[in-house]
Structure formats: C-alpha cells, structure tokens
Amino acid sequence: MTTVLVLVFLALIAAGVVVFVRQRKQVGAGPGGRTAAERSAARSLGKADVPTQARTSVRGLQLGDVVAYEGHDCIVERTYRFREGGSTWEEHLLVDGPFRRWLSVEDDEGLECVVWERQPDPTLTPGAKSIDVDGTSYRFDEQGTADYTLEEAAGPGGSGKAEYADYQAGERRLSFERYDGSGWEVNVGAVVSEHVFDVYPGSGEVPV
Predict the structure, then answer these.
(1) What is the DSSP letter of 69?
(2) b/e per residue, 94-106, with b = 16+ CB within 10 A?
(3) CA distance 54 to 56
(4) Where are the beta strands (DSSP E) in 46-205?
(5) Could you state, in order of their start, the residue ranges of all structural domains in the chain?
(6) Degrees (nearest 5) of the Cα angle 145, 124, 114?
(7) What's the pLDDT score for residue 49?
(8) How far apart are CA 10 and CA 106, in angstroms?
(9) How would residue 31 be classed by pLDDT, with cut points 50, 70 and 90?
(10) Is pLDDT of 125 > 60?
C-alpha cells in the first residue's frame, strides 16, 4: 500500500512540473511563437507588428505586400526602418517589373508620404544652402544620422548607421543618403497623399 501511495505522489509531482513548464512557455511566447525579447527586438526600429487583416494602408507595410499605385501593382521587395532619437520612419522599395519607386512614410505631426526616384549623379553632394536639379531649386531643410535596419527578400538584411541631408522645393523633395560611410545616394521625389495607394497585405514573403 505504501509503495502505491509513493508512486501516486511522484506521478502528481511530474504532472505539476509539466503544467508549470507549459505555462512558462505560453507566457514567454507571443504571436508566431516569438518570445517577448524577440518581439521587442523586432520592434526596436519601428517594425510593424500589425495583424494582416488590419494592414490596409501604407502604415506598417511589410515585405510581400502589394501596393497599387498609378496603374502598377507593386511588390514591397525591400524596407529600411530608421530611428533617430524619438523619430522613426520607413522607406520601401516598390517593384512592378521595370517600374521601381521608393516610398518613404513618416508620421511626424501628420503622415507624410513621398514617392522617390533615384537620381544617379556623382557630381551632386549635400552642403550648399540650395541645389538646382533639372530646373528645380531645392533649399536645405535638415540633416542628421539615424540607426537603420534593412529587410529584403533577396538577402539576410542588416543594420547600421545612415547619414542623410534633405532639401525641399514646395512639395518636391531632394534627398541625400549614405550608409555606413558609403557614397551618397541621390533621390528626387514628391509628396503624395496616402490615399493614392491601395494596399493588399501579403504573406510576409516575396514571390520568386
């Protein structure tokens, strides 16, 4: 009889340990099985953690989302997420075959969306109070250094430091960026309404 009671007692202890371990795992893990620390790291530079069914605007775009713009159904193939002090913003590469545009999204006292095109010109560098490009005179607005993370379909992504210098001409924009001490990349763009885009959330993966 004593042996039976001891075995029952040991079985109850084992069952209690299993329940405790399962509860610990459930508390530590969130959506997709990520731990609280992993979720925090993913959001460190503003990465969107928005449910798919709620992601229907340019706020919170992710890789694989489809963005309809000017007759093109573009796939988000690359995303930079920036943080400078308390400010965050994003830049997304939208691709539809040969059509390629960058879309920057920043919520700073109101959402500002800018559609950009690369402007290959090694002679253009920031520093002057005004710069003329294709007949438009842009005046200096701001410059700084931000932390970034890169997400892309074609590679593992990365992180580092980005320098930028921004110029304006009404709703037109001129931007200089360089990453981790590389050469300046030049972009020209224009402010657009967030409502010119239709967003269709993808699976988080870019089709090959």
Answers:
(1) E
(2) bbbeeeebbbbbb
(3) 6
(4) 66-69, 72-84, 87-96, 99-107, 111-118, 130-133, 136-152, 158-169, 172-179, 185-192, 198-200
(5) 2-40, 49-200
(6) 60
(7) 56
(8) 59
(9) very low
(10) yes
Residue 107: CB partners within 8 Å, gap ≥ 6?
A: 59, 89
**190-196 own/partner pairs: CB under 8 Å, 24+ apart:** 190/114, 190/115, 191/112, 191/113, 191/114, 192/113, 192/114, 192/115, 193/113, 194/57, 194/58, 194/59, 194/105, 194/111, 194/113, 196/69, 196/70
Instruction: Using the structure block, give the residue that is written with the tokens 């304006």.
Output: 168
Tell whether the model's pLDDT for residue 2 goes beyond 70. Answer: no
Contacts of 144 (CB under 8 A, 6+ apart): 84, 163, 164
Enter the tokens of residue 200.
């269709």
